[in-house]
Design brief:
heterotrimer, A mainly alpha, B alpha/beta, C mainly alpha, B: alpha/beta, Rossmann fold, 3 domains, 6-stranded mixed sheet, 26% strand, C: ABC transporter involved in vitamin B12 uptake, BtuC, globular
C-alpha cells in the first residue's frame, strides 16, 4: 500500500486547479465569441467593442473603478457561496441586503459613537438585519419544509414592500421639504474612510477580510466541514451526527449576515444614507453569477468579481463610443451560462478521468 | 415475431416447447462475476421459480433477459428465436415484461394513466380513455384483480401497486412475466392474493418467472424451480421432488461455515440494551414492535432476517435517526432522549446499510470521508487539524487494506469493497464501545469480506459489543455469539449459532412456524 | 351523479359568496366592490398573471422548474411591442410568443441538453432578458419619436375591443343590442346588482387577447389530461425513470414543455405591452413572472387552480386601482367568510380548521375596525405572502409534480 510522494500529490492538486481554471477560461472565451456574433448580427463591430473594453478598462482610473464595483459583488457572491456549499440556494440576497441597508442606515443615525466603533456598529446592525431576514427562509424550511428557492424569491418581493413601507412611513427624512428621498445622513463618525479619495472606500478591505474568513471557516474549520458534509451527502452527514436543521439555520444566518454587507460600500462609503434610488439593486442576482463563475472558491469569487467589475467599469465609455453599454451585462450573463455548462461537462469528464487514472494506478500497484 | 427489431437470427431452435431458453450465460462486473455459465429452460404457461441467496446472481440473470444488461457470452432465445435485447423496449416488443422489486410508477398519475403510459390507445393523439378503461378492466377481471382505475398511485398500498405493475406489463401484451422478489414487500394475505392472480394468469397462457428466496412460497406456487448459487445453476427440480430442507441446502451449499473459534470470553457488563423498543409506522403497522435485547461487553449479537422486516428501522431507532418508544441504554444510562451526536459520543458506532447513501460523500476525498463523524477528535480548537485528519485516514488505509493510490482521491474512484473497508475502518479506528454493523460485507468481494470479519473479531476481542444485522447466514452464523431472528418487526427467535443451521434460521426468517 | 353534486355544490358556493360580498357592499356602501369597472380592471390585470402561471405549470408539469418566467415575459414585452409598433398588434402578439419561446429554448438547452441546475438557468435567463432587451432598445428605439433606452415608441393600432351582444350592449351588424347586465348593475339590488356588475365586468370592453388568454386554461387542461402528448409530458415530470422504461423520450417532451412554457410567458409579456398599454417600458413585467409562479403554487399545479389564483390576485390589484378605499371593506368580507368556514368546521368537528377560521375572523375583524387605509406598498406583497402562507399551511395537500426540478439523464442507471 504505497502512497504517492508529497510532490506528486501537490502536482495532482495543481493539475486539478489548472484544469478548472483552464476550462473556465476557455468557457469565457467561448462566451465572448457568442457575444461577438450577437454584436455582429446587430450591426456592431465586435473587435471594436472588445478593443474599447480593453482599452478603457486597463487605464489607471478605471482599475480603481473596477475595484469599487467589485466590492459589493464580493460580499454578495460570498453570501451565495455559503449557501451553495451546503446545497442551499439563497436567491434572497437581494431582499436581505436591501432590508439590511435600510435598517443599518437608520440605526446608524440613532447612535453617537467614536469613529471606529460607529462604523463597526453599523456593520454589525447590517449583518444582524440581513441574517434576520434570511432566517425567515431557514425557519420556513426547517419547520414547514418549504424549499428555500421559492421562499427566498417570495421574501425578496415582500422585503421590497416592507422596505418601501418602512421608509415612507417612518424613516424618510423630510427635513428639507420632502425633496430629499433618503434617510437622515449618517454622522461623519459613522462613515467609512476612503482608500483613494472619492474613488474607493475601505469596504474593499472589509470584503477581502470576509473572503479570507469565508475560506477559513468553510474550508478549514470544523463547522465548515460539517456544513460541506451536509451539502455533499445530507443523509450521511445526519447519520454521522451532524444536526441537519441546525446546519440549515446557521448557514442561512451566515449567508444573510454577509448579504447584509452588500450595500454597505454605498451606505457608509458613498451616500451615507439609505434612499430607494440611491442604493443600487440587482447585486443579489449578480452575486449568484459571480459565485457560479468563481465556483464558490474564495480566489475564484474575487477573480470573478474583478472580471465583472472590470466589464462594468467600461460601460460609460462604451456608450459614448456608440456601443450600447448593456452589452456588458449581456456578456456577463452569457459568460455565466457558458461557464456553468462547461463546468458541468468538464467536471463529469474530470471525474471519469480521475476514476480511470486511479484504476490504472492501482493496476500498477498490483503488478509490483 | 416482433423481436425482429433486435438482432435476431432466424434459426428456429429445436425444443420450442420452452418459451424461454438461456444458454451458458456469463456476465461479470468489475471485480464480481455475477453469472457464470448459467443455463435455464422455462416451459410455456408455467410458473418457474429461481431461488438463491442474496447476491447469488438471480437479478442479474433476469436483467439480462429483460435487456437491461448485455451478457458477456451465451445466448437467449424467446419463443424459439435466438435473440439479443439491447434495451427493455426490445424485450417488451418480444413479449417479455418485468415487474421490478422497486416499482416504476408515477405517484401522482392515476392507475389507468400509469397502466397505459407509453402504449396509449388514441384517436389522432387524443386518449381513448373509454377503450383503455375497458381493455384494462378485461385484463384485470381475467386474473381476478379488482382496482379503482381512477385513484392516484399515491393512495394505493404496496400490494395494489404491485398489481398495477403487473397490469401494466400485461397491457403491453407480455407473454412472459418476470417478477423480481414480488413477495419481499407484501404481507401474508397479499402474498396469497398475488398467487391467486398468478395462477389465473398462467391459466390464460402466460409464462411467469418468479425470483425469490422464500422457500415456502416457492414450493407452494411454482411448477419448476431452478436453484442458483454463487452465479451458477445448481439444479432445476420439481417442487414435488424436494422439500424445504433439501432446497435450503442446495441454496446455501452443504458445507456449513466454520465457526470462528473464539478464545476470549464474553464479558459480564451489558453495554447496549433495548427494552420494548417500538418504531411507529405510517399506517397501522409498526416496522419495529416491542423489541428487547441486550449486548454484553465483547459479545456479537447477530440479527438475522430477510430485508424489510424492521432491521433498518431498528438501527435507525438505536442511533436516534427516527423517533421510537421504549428505552435504549448504553452502559446502563438511558439514551433514548439524546441526540444522534450525543449517542455517538457515548461510544456508539454505526456501519450503515447502504454505504453510498448513508455513509460516504462520494465527491469528497478519502480523508474527508474518514473525518466524517470524527471532526471533534481531529480538530485543534475550532479548526480541523488537517495533518491529523490525513494521517488518521492513512492509518485506516494501511490497517484495513484499502486499495487506493492515496488519501486525496475522491471516494467514488474506489471499488465497492474498498469503500466499505473505508466505512468500516472509520468506525473501528476510534475503538468504539458498541458497533452496530448493518450488512457489513454486502456486495463486496471475498477477500474484503474476510478482512472486515477479521477486524470485527479483533475489536470484539478487545471488548467491543457488536450488534450485527445481516441477511447473510454464513456471516451471522460465523460471527455471532447469539442470534436473534427478526421477522415482521418482532424478534421471532433467539438461537445459539453452535446448534443453529441455515435451515432452522431460514425457517424463522421466513416466518414459518 | 358525482359531477351533478359537484356542480350544485359549486353553485351553492358561488351564490353564498355573492350573498356575503353583497351584504358587505350594502353594509359599507362600497359599491366599487362588485362594480363592472372593478371587475373589468381585475380581469385585465388577471390575464398576464394567469398566463405566467400557466407558463410555470407547463414547465413544472414536464419536470423543469422555471424561475426564468420573468425573463421570458420581458422578451415577450419587448418583441411584442416591437412587432406591434412595426406591423400591428396581431404580429406583435405572435412575436411576443416567439420571443418567450426563445427564452424557453435557452432554458431547455441549458437544463435538458446540458443538465445544469434549473434554478441557475432560470436566474441567468432573467438577467439575460433584462439587459438583452435594454441593449436592443438602445439599438432600435433610441432616437425614435417617443422612444428611448427604456421605452418603445407608442403603437399606432390597438387590438379591437368588444362588448358581448345583448348581455352587455355589444353591437351586432350595426344594431346596438340592449345592455341587460348593465341595467341589473345600475339598480344595485342585493345579490342581483352584484351579479350584474361582475358578469358585465367580465363581458364588456373585452380584448381578443383576453379571450385567447382565458382559452389557454381549458385548452391546457385538455391537452395535458386528455391527449397522449399530455399524459407523456406529465409522466416526464412525475417519474421520468418510469416513463423512460416505457420507451418515452423524456427529454424531447421537456423541450416541448419548455417551448410552450416560454411561449405562454412571452404572450403574458405581450399582453402587457400591447393590450394593457401601447408601448414597451422597462420594468413593465414588475415581478409578474414570480407572481405567476406564486399563482401556480396557489393553484396546486392545476389549470383551474391557476385561474382561481390569478383572479384572486388580479381582483386584489384591480380594486386597489379602481377604489383603494374599498380595500378595508374586504376585511369585513374576509371576516364574514371566516364565520362561514367556522360554522362548517364546527359541523365537521375539524379542530384545526375551527381555530384557523376563528383566528382569521379575529384578525380581519380587528383590521376592519382599526385600519383606515392600507399602505399601497404593503398590498403589493399580497401574492407573495399568500403563497408562503399556502405553502406553510397546506403543504400536505399540495401535489407538485414529483420530479420537477430534478435533473434527468436518459440512459443512466437509476
Amino acid at each position: 500500500m504505497s502512497t504517492k510522494p508529497a510532490s506528486q500529490r501537490n502536482f495532482d492538486a495543481l493539475q486539478k486547479s489548472l484544469v478548472t481554471f483552464g476550462s473556465s477560461l476557455s468557457a469565457i472565451a467561448f462566451a465572448l465569441v457568442i457575444c461577438g456574433l450577437l454584436l455582429l448580427v446587430t450591426g456592431k463591430d465586435p473587435f471594436a467593442a472588445y478593443g474599447k473594453i480593453l482599452e478603457t478598462g486597463l487605464s489607471g482610473d478605471k482599475l480603481l473603478e473596477m475595484l469599487k464595483r467589485a466590492t459589493p459583488l464580493i460580499f454578495s457572491a460570498t453570501a451565495v457561496a455559503i449557501g451553495f456549499k451546503m446545497n442551499l440556494f439563497n436567491i434572497g440576497v437581494e431582499g436581505q441586503y436591501l432590508f439590511a441597508a435600510l435598517i443599518a442606515a437608520e440605526m446608524g443615525t440613532r447612535v453617537s459613537l467614536p469613529r471606529p466603533l460607529h462604523i463597526l456598529f453599523i456593520l454589525i446592525v447590517a449583518m444582524i438585519a440581513g441574517a434576520a431576514w434570511a432566517s425567515i427562509a431557514a425557519l420556513l424550511k426547517i419547520h414547514r419544509g418549504i424549499n428555500e428557492v421559492i421562499s427566498t424569491i417570495m421574501l425578496n418581493y415582500i422585503a421590497l414592500s416592507v422596505i418601501q413601507w418602512m421608509f415612507e412611513t417612518f424613516f424618510r427624512d423630510d427635513s428639507d421639504g420632502g425633496l430629499n428621498v433618503k434617510t437622515t445622513e449618517i454622522a461623519p463618525s459613522g462613515r467609512m474612510p476612503d482608500l483613494v479619495d472619492d474613488r474607493l472606500n475601505g469596504m474593499l478591505i472589509v470584503a477581502l477580510l470576509i473572503v479570507i474568513l469565508y475560506w477559513f471557516v468553510i474550508f478549514r474549520s470544523r463547522f465548515g466541514f460539517q456544513l460541506r458534509a451536509s451539502g455533499l451527502n445530507p443523509i450521511a452527514a445526519r447519520t454521522a451526527g451532524i444536526p441537519a436543521n441546525r446546519m440549515v439555520l446557521i448557514a442561512m444566518i451566515l449567508s444573510g449576515a454577509i448579504a447584509g454587507l452588500v450595500a454597505m460600500p454605498a451606505v457608509i462609503g458613498d451616500v451615507y444614507a439609505y434612499g430607494p434610488s440611491a442604493i443600487a439593486t440587482q447585486f443579489g442576482f449578480a452575486g449568484i453569477a459571480v459565485a457560479l463563475l468563481g465556483r464558490n472558491h474564495p480566489v475564484g469569487i474575487v477573480g470573478a468579481a474583478l472580471l465583472f467589475g472590470f466589464l462594468d467599469s467600461t460601460s460609460a465609455e462604451l456608450q459614448l463610443s456608440g456601443i450600447p453599454s448593456s452589452i456588458v451585462k449581456v456578456i456577463q450573463a452569457i459568460i455565466v451560462l457558458v461557464v456553468v455548462i462547461v463546468n458541468e461537462a468538464s467536471s463529469r469528464r474530470f471525474n471519469r478521468r480521475t476514476a480511470e487514472r486511479a484504476a490504472l494506478a492501482l493496476k500498477s500497484l498490483d503488478t509490483q | 415475431m416482433q423481436a425482429g427489431s433486435a438482432k435476431s437470427s432466424q434459426t428456429l431452435s429445436a425444443e420450442s416447447a420452452n418459451i424461454v431458453e438461456l444458454k451458458n450465460i456469463s456476465k461479470s462486473f468489475p471485480g464480481v462475476i455475477a453469472n457464470r455459465d448459467i443455463s435455464l429452460q422455462v416451459a410455456r404457461a408455467t410458473i418457474h421459480a429461481i431461488v438463491g441467496e442474496n447476491g447469488a446472481g438471480k437479478s442479474t440473470l433476469m436483467k439480462i433477459l429483460y435487456g437491461l444488461h448485455q451478457p458477456d457470452s451465451g445466448t437467449i432465445s424467446v419463443n424459439g428465436y435466438v435473440t439479443q435485447f439491447k434495451s427493455p423496449s426490445e424485450a417488451i416488443a418480444a413479449g417479455v415484461g418485468m415487474v421490478h422489486q422497486h416499482f416504476m410508477l408515477a405517484d401522482n398519475l392515476t392507475v389507468l394513466e400509469n397502466i397505459i403510459l407509453g402504449s396509449e390507445p388514441t384517436k389522432i393523439g387524443v386518449l381513448s380513455l373509454g377503450d383503455a378503461r375497458k381493455q384494462v378492466k378485461e385484463i384485470a377481471t381475467s386474473i381476478g384483480v379488482e382496482i379503482d382505475l381512477d385513484l392516484p398511485i399515491s393512495e394505493l398500498g404496496v400490494g395494489q401497486r404491485q398489481r398495477v405493475e403487473i397490469l401494466k406489463v400485461l397491457f403491453r401484451g407480455a407473454e412472459i412475466l418476470v417478477l423480481d422478489e414480488p413477495t419481499a414487500v407484501l404481507v401474508p394475505q397479499e402474498v396469497d392474493e398475488l398467487f391467486t392472480n398468478l395462477r389465473k394468469l398462467v391459466a390464460t397462457g402466460t409464462t411467469i418467472i418468479f425470483i425469490s428466496h422464500k422457500l415456502d412460497e416457492v414450493l407452494a406456487v411454482s411448477d419448476e424451480i431452478t436453484v442458483i448459487r454463487q452465479g451458477s445453476t445448481v439444479a432445476t427440480v420439481l417442487p414435488k421432488s424436494v422439500d424445504r430442507l433439501k432446497l435450503a441446502e442446495m441454496m446455501v451449499g452443504s458445507d456449513l461455515p466454520s465457526h470462528g473459534k473464539r478464545t476470549t470470553k464474553v464479558g459480564a457488563t451489558i453495554q447496549l440494551a433495548a427494552h420494548n423498543l417500538t418504531v411507529l409506522g405510517k399506517d397501522n403497522k409498526n416496522p419495529v414492535q416491542n423489541v428487547s435485547f441486550n449486548v454484553a461487553e465483547g459479545e456479537i449479537v447477530g440479527i438475522a432476517g430477510v430485508d424489510g422486516n424492521g432491521q433498518f428501522e431498528l438501527c435507525e431507532a438505536l442511533l436516534g435517526l427516527v423517533a421510537s418508544q421504549g428505552t435504549i441504554e448504553i452502559s446502563g444510562t438511558d439514551v433514548s432522549k439524546l441526540s444522534i451526536r450525543e449517542r455517538l459520543k457515548k461510544g456508539l458506532a454505526y456501519i450503515p446499510f447502504d454505504r453510498q447513501r448513508e455513509g460516504l460523500m462520494l465527491g469528497a476525498s478519502l480523508w474527508e470521508n474518514s473525518l466524517l463523524g470524527h471532526e471533534q477528535q481531529l480538530s485543534r480548537g475550532p479548526m480541523i487539524d488537517l495533518a491529523a485528519a490525513k494521517n488518521s485516514c492513512r492509518e485506516i488505509i494501511e490497517r484495513f487494506g484499502v486499495t487506493t493510490p492515496n488519501e486525496l482521491v475522491p471516494a467514488f474512484v474506489l471499488s465497492g469493497g474498498n469503500q466499505q473497508k473505508l466505512v468500516v475502518g472509520r468506525n473501528l479506528a476510534t475503538a468504539p464501545k458498541i458497533l452496530i454493523a448493518a450488512h457489513p460485507t454486502r456486495g463486496i468481494d471475498v477477500g474484503a469480506q474476510a478482512a472486515v470479519w477479521e477486524e470485527i473479531r479483533r475489536s470484539r476481542d478487545a471488548g467491543m459489543s457488536v450488534l450485527l444485522v445481516s441477511a447473510d447466514l454464513e456471516e451471522v452464523l460465523g460471527l455471532s455469539d447469539r442470534i436473534l431472528v427478526m421477522f415482521d418487526g418482532e424478534i421471532a427467535a433467539e438461537l445459539d449459532p453452535k446448534s443453529a443451521t441455515p435451515q432452522i434460521l431460514g425457517k424463522y426468517m421466513t416466518g414459518t412456524r | 351523479m358525482i359531477t351533478k353534486s359537484k356542480n350544485s355544490r359549486l353553485l351553492m358556493f358561488v351564490v353564498g359568496a355573492l350573498a356575503v360580498i353583497s351584504s358587505v357592499r350594502l353594509w359599507t356602501g362600497q359599491d366599487a366592490l362588485t362594480s363592472s369597472s372593478t371587475i373589468g380592471t381585475a380581469l385585465r390585470l388577471t390575464v398576464p398573471i394567469l398566463l405566467a402561471g400557466m407558463a410555470g405549470l407547463w414547465a413544472e408539469r414536464c419536470g423543469v422548474l422555471n424561475i426564468g418566467i420573468e425573463g421570458m415575459m420581458i422578451f415577450g414585452t419587448w418583441f411584442g411591442a416591437w412587432g406591434a409598433w412595426q406591423s400591428g398588434p396581431w404580429v406583435g402578439l405572435v412575436l411576443a410568443i416567439l420571443g418567450g419561446m426563445l427564452g424557453g429554448l435557452i432554458h431547455a438547452v441549458a437544463t435538458v441538453r446540458f443538465n445544469i441546475d434549473q434554478v441557475i438557468s432560470g436566474v441567468v435567463i432573467n438577467l439575460l432578458a433584462f439587459f438583452g432587451v435594454r441593449y436592443l432598445s438602445d439599438l432600435v428605439y433610441v432616437g425614435k419619436p417617443g422612444g428611448g433606452i427604456s421605452q418603445s415608441p407608442p403603437q399606432k393600432w390597438a387590438l379591437p375591443r368588444f362588448n358581448l351582444p345583448i348581455l352587455s350592449g355589444g353591437e351586432v351588424a350595426g344594431w346596438k343590442s340592449p345592455d341587460v347586465l348593465g341595467r341589473l348593475e345600475t339598480n344595485r339590488w342585493f345579490i342581483i346588482g352584484d351579479f350584474g356588475g361582475i358578469t358585465r365586468g367580465l363581458t364588456s370592453d373585452l380584448s381578443w387577447a383576453t379571450v385567447i388568454a382565458i382559452a389557454v386554461v381549458p385548452l391546457s387542461a385538455w391537452l395535458l389530461w386528455r391527449t397522449r402528448f399530455g399524459l407523456r409530458l406529465r409522466s416526464s415530470g412525475e417519474s421520468p425513470v418510469a416513463a423512460e422504461s416505457l420507451g418515452i423520450k423524456v427529454n424531447h417532451l421537456r423541450y416541448y414543455g419548455l417551448l410552450i412554457s416560454g411561449g405562454l410567458a412571452g404572450l403574458a409579456g405581450g399582453t402587457l405591452s400591447i393590450v394593457a398599454s401601447s408601448y414597451y417600458r422597462q420594468g413593465q413585467t414588475a415581478g409578474r413572472g414570480f407572481i405567476g409562479l406564486a399563482t401556480m403554487i396557489f393553484g396546486n399545479w392545476r389549470p383551474s387552480g391557476v385561474l382561481t389564483g390569478a383572479m384572486l390576485f388580479g381582483y386584489a390589484e384591480g380594486i386597489k386601482l379602481v377604489a383603494s378605499d374599498s380595500i378595508t371593506a374586504l376585511f369585513l368580507f374576509i371576516a364574514a367568510v371566516s364565520v362561514m368556514f367556522f360554522v362548517l368546521a364546527v359541523l365537521r368537528r375539524k379542530r384545526t380548521q375551527i381555530f384557523v377560521a376563528l383566528g382569521v375572523f379575529v384578525l380581519s375583524a380587528v383590521a376592519y375596525r382599526t385600519i383606515d387605509t392600507v399602505p399601497e406598498s404593503l398590498t403589493q406583497s399580497l401574492p407573495y405572502v399568500v403563497t408562503i402562507v399556502v405553502l406553510a399551511t397546506a403543504n400536505q395537500r399540495l401535489r407538485p409534480p414529483a420530479m420537477a426540478g430534478v435533473p434527468f439523464r436518459p440512459g443512466e442507471p437509476h
